[in-house]
Amino acid sequence: LAKTTQPISMDSYEGQEVNITCSHNNIATNDYITWYQQFPSQGPRFIIQGYKTKVTNEVASLFIPADRKSSTLSLPRVSLSDTAVYYCLVGGLPGGGKLTFGQGTILTVHP
Amino acid sequence: NAGVTQTPKFQVLKTGQSMTLQCAQDMNHEYMSWYRQDPGMGLRLIHYSVGAGITDQGEVPNGYNVSRSTTEDFPLRLLSAAPSQTSVYFCASQLAGGYSTDTQYFGPGTRLTVL
């Protein structure tokens, strides 16, 4: 399973765009990149997933360069409710439930 | 759908006691997993199951047993609780047989303290 590295913490202010970058140098050909969000006292929640280039949904965007050795989660115009831990996961077939959660990035949004 | 449910929400045990953490899902998911999360840490996989009757060990299986007699239920048993097992336990389920493209759905967690 590919190891991921992400910043331990980030601070932002309401209304700003936040970009969290994850490094995964050993990503395999069939690995997908998935981001989860976890609020205190709750289980993680799926945010977005991608394989290459750019993926966008109603919550976030995921940018993956051609070499796929890193990925960037972009949260547009964050609010206080976006304060959470964000996990970058990399896994392929049959990865699935054996995905490895690192320490994640603690994002704190300030008023 | 209730999604993934876990009981109890909180539990305090004494060292050496045994107990079972319950997990159920009503989404007809084949794949279920148990994780533990220690303070300030990410989640670590304890055991997982790719379907009824099939289980396997994850990263930190020692001290825990699982079984999967039905698709819906995946209980986690602590055989002889130790203070090192104080943690928050999350159960998760996933549609297919462990493909990373399938979203994992997590339960609300069980906060376990072992004295």
What are its keywords?
heterodimer; A: mainly beta; 9 strands; B: 115 residues; mainly beta; four-stranded antiparallel β-sheet
Helical coverage of chain B, percent range = under 10%
Number of strands of chain A: 9
Proportion of residues in extended strands of chain B: over 45%
Shape of chain B: globular
**Unreliable runs of chain B:** none
User: Element order, helices and strands of chain A?
Assistant: EEEEEEEEE
Work out the radius of gyration of chain A. 13 Å
Instruction: Report the major sheet of chain A.
Output: 5 strands, mixed
Tally of alpha and pi helices of chain B:
0
Count of beta strands of chain B: 11
Instruction: Note poorly predicted spans of chain A.
Output: 93-97
The termini of chain B sit apart by 36 Å
Mean pLDDT of chain A: 89
Radius of gyration of chain B: 13 Å
Can you characterise this structure?
The complex is a heterodimer of chains A (111) and B (115). Chain A is built from no helices and nine strands. Chain A is 0% helix and 47% strand. Chain B is 0% helix and 50% strand. Chain B contains no helices and eleven strands. The chains are: A mainly beta (111), B mainly beta (115). Chains A and B meet through strand 3, strand 4 and strand 8 of A and strand 4, strand 5, strand 9 and strand 10 of B.
Can I get a quick summary?
The complex is a heterodimer of chains A (about 110) and B (about 120). Chain A has no helices and nine strands.
Question: Mind sketching the topology for me?
Answer:
The complex is a heterodimer of chains A (111) and B (115).
Chain A: E1 9-13, E2 18-23, E3 32-38, E4 45-50, E5 53-56, E6 61-64, E7 70-75, E8 84-91, E9 105-110
Parallel strand pairs in A: 1-9
Antiparallel strand pairs in A: 2-7, 3-4, 3-8, 5-6, 6-7, 8-9
Chain B: E1 4-7, E2 10-13, E3 19-25, E4 31-37, E5 43-51, E6 54-57, E7 64-66, E8 76-78, E9 87-94, E10 104-106, E11 110-114
Parallel strand pairs in B: 2-11
Antiparallel strand pairs in B: 1-3, 3-8, 4-5, 4-9, 5-6, 7-8, 9-10, 9-11
